[in-house]
């Protein structure tokens, strides 16, 4: 009798366990939706906080003029205009600022959805305009700033380009007044991607190779960095790798690099496929200082600048033509291969071809899309695990597997938005965790767990479940590498069907 009672009790407990597990399976442990059949890695993804930029104006107000607006509006993933002008254009007389010169570009192109980045230089190498000969305005010289006329290490007559002594007290005082006004007008603007420290060296690159060849140490350069930090407190500040590397003393160079990193400043490389670097640094795709970028890319966006595209082609270094430096040192690699390799080493978020948009795109249509997707982040959704049955007003678990095939993380957080479409519609938004998704050539997968509270107002019934990523900072959708065919008009991607109960 006791034996029979024990068997009955065991049977009841076992039945309850089966019912419990069944309940768990229906409500919380659901099916896995494989998203890989919907991948599409061939379409251009125009996502926020990354992409191409166009140099214009570029040192000269007529350089790389945009022939037709569609050259940029139709360019896959064009993110911003990079305005690189001499100080003299913007302050032709002391205290009188010609902001309209750049505001005309800002107003037009921001209105078309692009951003802006700046470098204001204090030394140019041509003399075809007064603002080129005196990139630092002539009135600074007349106020008593020290300087001279130089070309490639040789002093010239007064018809040559003028170079200030970059730590001269008069020069620094006048520069600070300009940067104070410049920062007050533009710092923190939502469309401003970054500002370069462009106040030392030829074209603002931090070296004086084509000028006096004077050397500037840590303390002299720090004065310039600190001025930018003082007046650009909200906008990302960037320096060229040359700004640091051209400090002669290795210990001072190390200190400058550490100061840059400590202050949250990022790097750009202006020398990719420059002819000299093709021969000097072919193993690193002309990247001379990859360690600088390695120190910052996980926290700050970095910038890639190609040598002037027309120059690269003229020298035979784009296609590796016989007699060119690339043919000699490139080990059968093309200019496009060097672009790809440098992009990986720099972990660049923003990339520029440094030329005319229509020419670059006509020559490189497929490469343009490839590099657009690869720069910055590039998200692939492997799978989504979700319950079959959802209860209105209750919390449920959704699991997602993500991969980042770009070369950098995103530096802003994006929302994972889940939409229920059925008898009524409802949307839930939670942080996606995307800032943790670092690039990994080995294909590292990131498992995310999203706690989703079903909207209380959902009526019982059958629903289609959709998702998208969204950038609260830019109010733009963020596109994973998924086929457009599974997206609706609001860019939500279908996951599957679920049941909502009360």
Q: Any guess at the CATH architecture of the largest domain? A: Alpha-Beta Barrel
Query: What's the count of strands?
Result: 21
Number of helices: 17
If you average the pLDDT, what whole number results?
94
Assigned CATH superfamily of the largest domain: Glycosidases
The coarse overall form would be elongated
Q: In terms of per-residue confidence, which ranges show pLDDT below 50 for 5 or more consecutive residues?
A: 1-28
Could you tell me how far the N terminus lies from the C terminus, measured between alpha carbons in angstroms?
44 Å
Number of domains: 2
Largest sheet, if any?
8 strands, parallel, barrel
Q: Which range best describes the helical content: under 10%, 10-25%, 25-40%, 40-55%, 55-70% or over 70%? A: 25-40%
Q: State the CATH class of the largest domain.
A: Alpha Beta
Q: Note the beta-strand portion.
A: 25-35%
Which structural class should the secondary elements be placed in?
A: alpha/beta
Side-by-side strand order of the widest sheet: 2-3-4-8-9-10-11-12
Cα-atom Rg, whole angstroms?
Answer: 28 Å
Kindly identify the CATH topology of the largest domain.
TIM Barrel
């Amino acid at each position: 009798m006791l034996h029979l009672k024990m068997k009955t009790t065991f049977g009841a407990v076992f039945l309850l366990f089966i019912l419990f597990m069944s309940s768990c399976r229906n409500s919380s442990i659901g099916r896995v939706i494989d998203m890989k059949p919907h991948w599409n890695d061939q379409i251009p993804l125009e996502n926020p906080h990354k992409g191409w930029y166009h140099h214009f104006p570029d040192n000269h107000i007529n350089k790389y003029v945009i022939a037709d607006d569609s050259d940029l509006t139709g360019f896959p993933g064009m993110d911003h205009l990079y305005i690189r002008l001499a100080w003299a254009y913007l302050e032709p007389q002391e205290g009188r600022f010609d902001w309209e010169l750049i505001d005309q570009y800002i107003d037009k192109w921001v209105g078309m959805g692009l951003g802006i980045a700046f470098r204001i230089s204090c030394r140019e190498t041509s003399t075809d305009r007064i603002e080129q000969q005196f990139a630092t305005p002539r009135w600074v010289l007349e106020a008593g700033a020290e300087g001279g006329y130089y070309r490639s290490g040789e002093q010239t007559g007064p018809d040559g380009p003028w170079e200030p002594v970059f730590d001269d007290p008069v020069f620094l005082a006048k520069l600070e007044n300009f940067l104070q006004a410049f920062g007050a007008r533009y710092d923190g603007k939502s469309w401003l991607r970054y500002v370069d420290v462009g106040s030392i060296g030829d074209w603002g690159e931090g070296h004086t190779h084509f000028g006096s060849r004077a050397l500037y140490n840590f303390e002299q350069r720090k004065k310039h960095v600190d001025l930018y930090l003082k007046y650009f407190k909200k906008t990302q500040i960037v320096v060229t790798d040359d700004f640091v590397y051209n400090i002669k003393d290795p210990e001072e160079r190390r200190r400058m690099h550490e100061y840059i990193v400590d202050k949250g400043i990022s790097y750009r490389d202006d020398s990719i496929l420059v002819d000299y670097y093709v021969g000097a640094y072919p193993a690193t795709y002309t990247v001379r200082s990859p360690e600088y970028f390695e120190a910052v890319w996980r926290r700050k966006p970095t910038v890639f600048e190609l040598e002037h595209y027309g120059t690269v082609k003229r020298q035979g270094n784009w296609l590796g033509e016989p007699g060119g430096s690339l043919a000699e040192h490139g080990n059968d690699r093309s200019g496009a291969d060097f672009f790809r390799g440098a992009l990986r080493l720099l972990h660049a978020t923003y990339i520029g071809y440094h030329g005319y948009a229509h020419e670059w795109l006509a020559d490189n249509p497929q490469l343009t899309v490839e590099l657009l997707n690869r720069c910055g982040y590039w998200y692939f959704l492997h799978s989504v695990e979700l319950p079959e049955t959802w209860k209105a007003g209750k919390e449920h678990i959704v699991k997602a597997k993500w991969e980042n095939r770009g070369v950098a993380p995103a530096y802003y957080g994006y929302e994972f938005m889940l939409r229920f479409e059925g008898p009524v519609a409802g949307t839930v938004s939670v942080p996606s965790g995307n800032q943790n998704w670092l690039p990994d050539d080995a294909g590292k997968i990131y498992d995310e767990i999203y706690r989703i509270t079903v909207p209380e107002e959902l009526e019982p019934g059958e629903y289609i479940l959709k998702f998208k990523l969204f950038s609260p900072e830019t109010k733009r959708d963020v596109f994973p590498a998924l086929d457009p065919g599974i997206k609706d008009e609001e860019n939500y991607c279908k996951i599957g069907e679920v049941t909502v109960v009360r």
